[in-house]
Amino acid sequence: MNGPHDLGGRMGFGPIPLEVDEPIFHADWEARALGITLTCGALGHWTLDESRHARESLPPAVYYSASYYEIWERALEALLLRHALVTEDDLARGQAAAGEAHPRRLPAARVPAVLASGGPTDRPVATPARFQPGDRVRARLMHPKTHTRMPGYLTGRPGVIEADRGGFVLPDSNAHGGGENPERLYTVVFEAARVWGQGAEPGVTISADLWESYLEPA
Amino acid sequence: MPHDHDHGDHDNHLDPMDARVRALETILVQKGLIDPAAVDAIIDTYANKVGPRNGAQVVARAWTDPEFAAWLARDATAAIADMGFTGRQGEHMQAVFNTPDQHNVIVCTLCSCYPWSVLGLPPVWYKSPAYRARVVIEPRAVLAEFGLTLPVSTRIRVWDSTAELRYLVVPMRPEGTEGMDLTALADLVTREAMVGTGLPRLPA
Q1: Residue-level pLDDT, tens digit, chain B, 204 residues
Q2: Which of B81, B22, B92 lies closest to A27 in space, CA to CA?
Q3: Residue B117 annotated to the active site
Q4: Nearest C-alpha of chain B: how many angstroms from A26?
């Protein structure tokens, strides 16, 4: 979906908000929002792709007026409701009946190991590569209403394959319970002038990492 | 992390987001879904342990050890793991090297993908709509706002982190740093230099 998150090339957002000596968190709640988002993710009810989709599905007026951790908090509430881990009544009351510990509740002692191992998303792909480095391709013209990692500013644009990165989980299906369906991922290079046309800054290329089904020969 | 009450007011005037996040955490703990000590441990990791000093050590080693630099270029995930930096949002690393001809800059236009294992959590500017929107269409103008003006003869490559590859920019080693040790070199390597919105500091 080309929702409010699909920002590449959009105008009107003003100067870059630079801060001197900025803190890691600007309020305690930001730190708590990060921590509860990660601990809830560890329960295993949704994928990273589904959580990204929950964030980008916020209404544009909400998305643009929220700080990043507010976006995380709102999306986490939506995920918890969707997966029936909390109820609207719980959220309205700010209290819930005591429950048994979830079997995959993350204990503090496991946090270092979980963070240090992360969640690799590379997967073997049996089919031969459709594209080779140097091939001219086009980012398919596509506007799915569901989650995708094809940025709107690149869809339909011509580029060149720079590298074959091997197989990776396909977010477009994995965000919606459709399984990992790994596909080969390529780094594709686009000339800025072929993306933006007249007035593009000189000597600029842009690359994106795009799945095989996002691409067609050009 | 202690809760912050120094807003010059009392608890019934909490920031709405503070109240909202506290309420959700309370519910999650009551329902047995999270352990608040695990939340504390995650915060401690990113507040105190994982940050841009990790990446600076990688860059300093690459500046001084050509074999390591070659390994970093070939298999950044393995080379960085060899220094003990692994994990969440750094599972699939790529190192991109600045040259006199090409300057690299990293963005995630679709969210805020960032190499946590080497740089820690992203700063506000990296997550801002302004940066995400603008750096792909006017990177020279954006870099100028950071105080970095590159000659027109230097090509700019903007890497949009659309998948799970996470990028670390390896800036060029500043002149006048011959003979400096790894610690002193790492002190020159800023977070912005490793995202590509800045250059390393010059030696004093």
Answers
A1: 444 444 444 455 578 999 999 999 999 999 999 999 999 999 999 999 999 999 999 999 999 999 999 999 999 999 999 999 999 999 999 999 999 999 999 999 999 999 999 999 999 999 999 999 999 999 999 999 999 999 999 999 999 999 999 999 999 999 999 999 999 999 999 999 999 999 999 998
A2: B22
A3: no
A4: 9
Which residue of chain B comes nearest to A63, CA vs CA?
B129
Q: Domain limits of chain A?
A: 28-117, 136-217
Place of tokens 């013209």: A141
For domain A28-117, which architecture applies?
A: Orthogonal Bundle (1.10)
* CB atoms A29 and B15 under 8 Å: yes
Answer whether B163 sits within 8 Å of A149, measured CB to CB: yes
A69-121 pLDDT, tens digit each? 999 999 999 999 999 999 999 999 999 999 999 999 999 999 999 999 999 99
Instruction: Name the CATH code of domain B51-195 (choices 3.40.30.10, 3.90.330.10, 3.30.43.10, 3.40.50.1820).
Output: 3.90.330.10
* Residue tagged 């963070």 (tokens): A115
Domain map (residue ranges) of chain B: 11-48, 51-195
CA distances A54 to A32, A79, A89, Å, are 19, 7, 20
Q: How far is B21 from chain A (nearest CA, A)?
A: 6
CA distance B51 to B114: 12
pTM: predicted TM-score of the whole model, two decimal places: 0.96
Is residue B108 annotated as a catalytic residue, yes or no? yes
User: Looking at the partner chain, which of A7, A165, A195 has a beta carbon nearest the beta carbon of B129?
Assistant: A7
Q: Does domain A136-217 have CATH number 2.30.30.50?
A: yes
* Spatial separation of the C-alpha atoms in residues B168 and A2, rounded to whole Å: 27
Q: H or E segment at B154?
A: none
The alpha carbon of residue A138 is apart from the nearest alpha carbon of chain B, in Å, by 16
Please judge whether B86 and A116 are an interchain contact, meaning their C-beta atoms are less than 8 angstroms apart. yes
Using CB atoms, which residue from B35, B42, B159 is nearest to A115?
B42
Q: Which two tokens stand for residue A139?
A: 């980012």
